[in-house]
Amino acid sequence: MSLLIKPLPCLLLPIIFILFSSTLHSTSHGAPSADLHSQTNHIPGAVDESENGVVGWGVRRSVLENSSTLAAQRTRRKDPLNNFNYYTGGWNISNKHYFASVGFTGITFFLIAAIWFVGFGLCLLLLCCCFCCCRREPYGYSRAAYALSVILLLLFTVAAVIGCIVLYTGQGQFHSTTSETLDYVVRQANTTVANLENVSDYLAAAKSIGIDQVSLPTDVQNNIGNVDNEISSAATTLQSETKNNKKNIEDVLDTVGLALIIIAAVMLLLALLGFLFSILGLQFLVYVLVIIGWILIAGTFILAGVFLVVNNMVGDTCAAMDQWVQNPTAHTALDDILPCVDNATAQATLSQSQEVTYQLVGIMNGVIANVSNANVPPIAPQPLYFNQSGPLVPFLCNPFNTDLSNRTCAAGELDFENATQVWQNYVCQVSSNNTCTTVGRLTPAMYSQMINAANVSYGLYHYGPFLVGLLDCRLVRETFTAITQEHCPDLKRYSMWVYIGLAMVSAAVMLSLIFWVIYARERRHRKYTKLVNAQHGDHDDSFGEKRP
């Protein structure tokens, strides 16, 4: 039964961060790529297994990975680390090529950010040089250009406001959805801890169980003690690690949420102030905002690319979990995170828990048959004789045969749920020397001992499937199913809202910034033209060719 314990802390903890670990995992700490797993060094004098018809573990692992890749179609993307060939390794957060390929999906926004930063920076430099070295008086302006610049400036400002709203709403919903997913996983972990503690309590009680001086063998008690200690340690570890991981993930979510709120507020303020200063003709302040916006827009485009990558990673992870749920026994990249034990080990663990249950029920039925229901002569010493009389005590149904196969209860046998109530009808009143003074075949002390034994037997029988569920990842599979069906759609939707909001804000403020400059120029030309017209008594403010 000791096989049960060691994997326990590893089974549920990864679920807490699996949706987020792929976005935080550093490739520098990852395992080598799948190609490296299949490489083996030939040692002189050693026997090459492949030459003798035996496939080595490295080759077997490579074959299994190639045949059991997760989300293979979804993750088929260009890999910049492999000469831009398509990545075919599926979802694998231990593979640097996966990170490179999914990171490459944000290249569009990264290129836009670079082109904007360099291109607009050069334009600003050129304008400064022209303004300082080739300064000429503005003369003439176009009414159409002036009106169009005002209209477009207003439209792009409205678009920036809408983008900020989408960004703010998206980050709020994304934060809420990820928190709900985290809370669900933590509840699953807490349920597991509670069940482990219950199993630990039952096992601790089993050590001290004795019915009429009959108890479990010493070796079984020692084994129960060892397993009980390991389960208690596993439950404590799982509880503490769950609490720590929950806090770490919440800190990351809060930091990201706060950063996005600040970005939305700053970009909204920038768009509104730029529009206001442009309309009011505060040219110096407009140029200050242009410099600030130039840098912020580049950074916001980069963030849009990052969240596009996050959106793809969330989608990949959800697809991988869903595919793993459909085929949980296949060897996949999830095995490094969820080390599920094979069915043989799980069955061995269940068999040992069944063995303890079988022995405890056997002890109770043995006492009933050989002591309580026996017509012992009065000359027999206690505890064989205690003046037992009346109807025979029914036996407790043993759920297992001697080979631990499932057993059907015989007629008249009691099950775990009603045994204690029925046995209470067979309890007699006793004298000071523990002899029955009324009709009955169980003394209060025997009844109390049998209740304890029945409760422990029921506990082990009831929690046996739960323990196997931990080992064969049934609990993990159920959790993954709930996440993919109930949480993944919202996670993908709202992470998409975030990068769409960032892209809208970046594009709208970028175009607004350009039209701040255009409108300021047109406004300056219009003002100068009106001044010239007033001096010449000409009311047509569009005369003359427009010059820079």
Automatic annotation (TrEMBL):
InterPro entries: DDB_G0292058-like (IPR040283). The chain crosses the membrane at residues 107-134, 146-168, 256-277, 284-310, 496-520. Residues 1-30 form the signal peptide. GO terms for cellular component: plasma membrane; plasmodesma. Keywords: Membrane, Signal, Transmembrane, Transmembrane helix. This is Transmembrane protein.
